[in-house]
From TrEMBL:
The lineage of its organism: Bacteria, Bacillati, Bacillota, Bacilli, Bacillales. It comes from Cytobacillus horneckiae. This is 2-amino-3-carboxymuconate-6-semialdehyde decarboxylase. It holds the Pfam family Amidohydro_2. Belongs to the metallo-dependent hydrolases superfamily. ACMSD family. GO terms for biological process: secondary metabolic process. Residues 3-328 form the Amidohydrolase-related domain. GO terms for molecular function: aminocarboxymuconate-semialdehyde decarboxylase activity; hydrolase activity; metal ion binding.
Length: 332
């Protein structure tokens, strides 16, 4: 069984919240034809998309063509909207969560859903996480790498992580509102350098701050192979050793990083082998970033191309690990 853990979806009938709430920052989907649309933000083109981003039928056609049994579908990060007033951000989150839940319900053997929550308000985020997990039957929550410039170790998020730990909610951390935006626009470095760096900062914040120590059952997966984080771990460990006055944990950062999960979207078998050697093959989930331009085609190619790993390990990487991470067990 092949499970693509990292895919994004957006409802075609996404409401124009600029008109509804009188602001211009909301992402708006402007359909150009039956097979394509523009995502507009503040009146500017954010991304051109095809019907793959909203059509379950099109997705299933692609899955069949590329040998994918199940997609895990999650919101497009530009919709997180942590900057918005809480009632408006909650409206956006609930609209998407209901759409994802309905898509899964209509195709339960092909899709698994992740929801989104308004992290700028901890109580609202916890309430919506509870609704996603226990009413909408979603399998986890996708969150961004920062909340309005605050790293994930900001004290305001402690209760959110505490409840995710208590309820055994899998969290998928995806970069958004990346650091150094003013320096990464040229050459599209926002996507190739900014996002991996942003992810590294989010992961480092969690292992250094003590969050992973306080909540030992917290299940967290980082997009894009963890970005640059896996390769920075030795430097983080060295900092922990030489700066005892700022330590927050009893163990090295690498000790807590072993609890993390990572998708496989790093394109290179050498990097896949590095992730396996450092974290164990059980912590790697196949993910493609469907349906966007930087996605891996076909999903799982980098795993298929990785030498010197057994067929059983590849089965884990290609599907079984994702289902276990999501607390789902299926035969295949």
């Amino acid at each position: 069984m092949r499970v693509d853990f990292h895919t994004h979806i957006l409802p075609l009938d996404l409401p124009d919240l600029n008109k509804k709430f009188g602001q211009s920052r909301w992402p708006v989907l402007e359909q150009k034809c039956s097979c394509g649309a523009d995502i507009m933000v503040s009146g500017k083109l954010f991304r051109e998309v095809t019907d793959q981003v909203w059509s379950a039928q099109k997705r299933i056609q692609d899955m069949d063509a590329e040998g994918i049994d199940i997609q895990v579908i999650s919101p497009v990060p530009v919709t997180f909207s942590y900057w918005a007033p809480i009632d408006q951000a909650l409206y956006m989150a609930q609209y998407q969560n209901y759409f994802i839940s309905e898509t899964v319900n209509e195709n339960p053997h092909r899709f698994i859903g992740l929801g989104t929550v308004p992290l700028q308000n901890t109580k609202a985020a916890i309430d919506e996480m509870e609704r996603c997990m226990f009413q909408l039957n979603l399998a986890g929550i996708e969150i961004g790498t920062n909340v309005n410039g605050e790293n994930l170790d900001t004290p305001g998020l402690n209760e959110f992580f505490e409840m995710a730990n208590k309820w055994n909610v899998p969290l998928f951390v995806h970069p958004w509102e990346t650091l150094a935006k003013e320096r990464t626009a040229r050459h599209n470095f926002l996507y190739t350098v900014g996002m991996p760096s942003e992810t590294a900062l989010a992961a480092a914040s969690l292992v250094w701050s003590g969050i992973m120590e306080r909540f030992p059952n917290l299940k967290i997966c980082f997009a894009h192979g963890g970005g640059s984080f896996p390769y920075l771990l030795p430097r983080l460990d060295q900092g922990w050793k030489v700066w005892p006055d700022i330590r927050k944990t009893n163990e090295l950062p690498s000790y807590y990083a072993k609890r993390f999960y990572f998708d496989s979207l790093n394109y290179d078998p050498v990097n896949i082998k590095y992730l396996i050697d450092r974290f164990g093959h059980e912590k790697i989930l196949m993910g493609s970033d469907y349906p966007f331009l930087l996605r891996e085609i076909p999903p799982g190619k980098v795993i298929d191309d990785t030498p010197d790993i057994s067929k059983e390990i590849k089965k884990d990487l290609l599907g079984r690990n994702a289902l276990k991470f999501l607390n789902l067990e299926r035969e295949g």
